[in-house]
């Protein structure tokens, strides 16, 4: 019943804000066009708002999952009209807040103390409000200025209902859409469900933040705020307050004299460092979560917050991605095609030369161009068409990485449109691949495994004896199998002989019967000895012991 109510509320929001205007009607089949023509939203007047405001307000009203969708769209100015991108940009940190008194009640219940005993100062007016939570400025009793993040009340139930509706749509797509099984929409929705439910746990976010801070200790690339664990629970999170310019305020960064080219290049380096060096990357890098420290404009440093969504890759995925990207950068499309086939992402019977030609057709136009001239959106559409032709399956474990790449592209476009993404990333990947097989890495791997090997060393003699015993057992088993095979061969040979005897006996008796039937004038006592002889031979062949 709750799902039905949620579905009806979604339909009501679509009708209220007349979002049907965003539906491309012309390409649809005639029956669907007729259905849309008589849809209920035509009973609603069009609000006196711009289309961007209508879309933003609708997404806000629909809840956190739809707000996040708008956040991703706001960074895609290459595929979205300017007016829509400007309006959706407000979803980064300007979602309608919930009352500050409610936030105070949540904090007091979580930390089990009155707000006055926890903070010297607490501002009930939120600094920013996003889809999952909002943040308030405060000051600890020690005088340290902090921000307090509070999860929106009663949000988990809404999220679970929305996920259930998305799963319903995904299962229908997987069942009835011809590309459904290849694209794994159910797996993708379930992966997103795990991600967004994890984001509701602020202790997990705090742990992610601490890990990222350790990974970049002493780095001049990025700064991660300090966490105050004594004031952090599952729905309340307290961290150091940071001061910087939001990365989306490009004009303010330019006015401060920030080297935007260096900043953009460092953004690419941070991404690849997180993915390949640490295998732990910030996966929600929209402009609302990224700031810039301008204390030294010629050596700018990123500041990252909101680490609720992080991603990681195993060693095989890291290696596969790096080899593919290097092959792309080198335009070695043969290697790309071979890697896809060997990894199992396309069927084994795929013709490598045909797949190579298709990849070349997609990739060749995008090389040697600045970022402003490259649209990853259009590139992904072309790649999707190629994937569909060769039955390439979507890899759900990489969906989060793909989302992060889209965010990186959006940030790069805003900062320095002339950035050459390929030449920035290429040297880093080559350095990483060389480091994997360099002596320091091999020595480190040896050191990492040495304690485990030493721990297992007392067991080695026993394991060797057990292996020898199993080998002897296998020899006995092999001898037994040989005897069994010989018995089986003799049995089959005897069975073959039995069938041959039966056949010849039947034929001999049949001849004897035929001779008797075709000489009716001869009495029984005058039957030819030949008939009796044939019958005897036949019975002998049929009944002789085997």
Structure notes:
- The protein is of the alpha+beta class.
- Among the domains are: 2-92, no CATH class; 315-438, no CATH class; 460-543.
- The chain contains 22 helices and eleven strands.
- The strands form three sheets. Strands 1, 2, 3, 4 and 6 form a five-stranded antiparallel sheet that branches.
- Helix 13 (260-278) packs antiparallel against helix 18 and helix 21 (460-517) packs antiparallel against helix 22.
- The longest helix has 58 residues, at 460-517.
User: How much is the radius of gyration in Å?
Assistant: 36 Å
Question: What's the multimeric state?
Answer: single chain
The 3D shape can be described as: globular
The helix-and-strand class reads alpha+beta
The gist of it:
The protein contains 22 helices and 11 strands. By secondary structure, the protein is an alpha+beta fold.
